[in-house]
Design brief:
alpha/beta; 7-stranded parallel beta sheet; globular; Rossmann fold; 244 residues
């Protein structure tokens, strides 16, 4: 297997930092994006400057035919990847009574079905190789639930369940599957909060501050390392003590 990691939703936020951190540690990166082509191309240039072999691949992870096409293109470009990081996600704050069928379907389509689609496309190569690592990015709200984010919380909880079940199924094939649950992380997803709301939120965190994307990237780097070869089916909470 090549030393290549596919990071979905890599053009910004946590995904972008994961890609950069891995590139700094001798991984080659397949950058997945959907709409943010400009950002993805800029990231590719940064990754190459860090010494990594990198390329961009467009796909809406909620559509299997697009993911399957991406799989074929990545395999032609890099060969079989060594790891998959299912990071692509969307968020939305809305009262449950205002969630429409379309909102629900879109949220679960990207955040949960996207994990299913990408894993379904890339897992067979790992099974054949008897080796591989998958990291799914969930959320603290998948663990506890969040008011006004019922559909988001449900999707992220589903990612946790998928991780635990599939880890048991794939362990005999030498594949590890783990999940990272970020807490309050300073990314664009917090953009809807004003300074007062953000300060109040940080005040609830025992470490007294929001996390950074590099904190999630560090956890991903560890799970991909040889030191984590005996870890599978685990939910790694990176939340500053907000949930213990």
């Amino acid at each position: 297997m090549s030393n290549t990691v596919l990071v979905t939703g890599a053009s910004r936020g946590i995904g972008r930092q994961i890609a950069l951190t891995l590139a700094e540690n001798d991984y080659n990166i397949a950058v997945n994006y959907n709409k943010s082509e400009k950002e993805a191309i800029a990231l590719k240039k940064e990754l190459i400057a860090l010494g990594a072999d990198a390329d961009c691949f467009k796909a809406d992870v909620s559509e299997f035919y697009e993911v399957d096409n991406m799989h074929n293109n990545i395999k032609k470009r890099f060969g079989t990847i060594s790891a998959l990081i299912n990071n692509a996600g969307i968020s939305q704050s809305v009262l449950f009574t205002d969630i429409t069928d379309d909102m629900w379907d879109k949220m679960l389509g990207v955040n949960l079905k996207g994990v299913f689609n990408c894993t379904k496309a890339f897992l067979p190569d790992m099974i054949k190789a008897k080796k591989g690592k998958i990291i799914n990015i969930s959320s603290i709200w998948g663990q506890t639930g969040a008011a006004m984010e019922v559909h988001y919380s449900a999707a992220k909880a589903g990612v946790i369940g998928l991780t635990k079940a599939l880890a048991k199924e794939t362990a005999p094939s030498g594949i590890t599957i783990n999940c990272i649950c970020p807490g309050v992380i300073e990314t664009e997803m917090l953009g809807s909060l004003n300074k007062y709301e953000f300060a109040n939120l940080c005040g609830e965190i025992p470490l007294g501050k929001a996390g950074a994307a590099k904190d999630i990237a560090g956890a991903a780097l560890y799970l991909l390392s040889d030191a984590a070869d005996y870890i599978t089916g685990q939910i790694i909470s990176v939340n500053g003590g907000l949930l213990i």
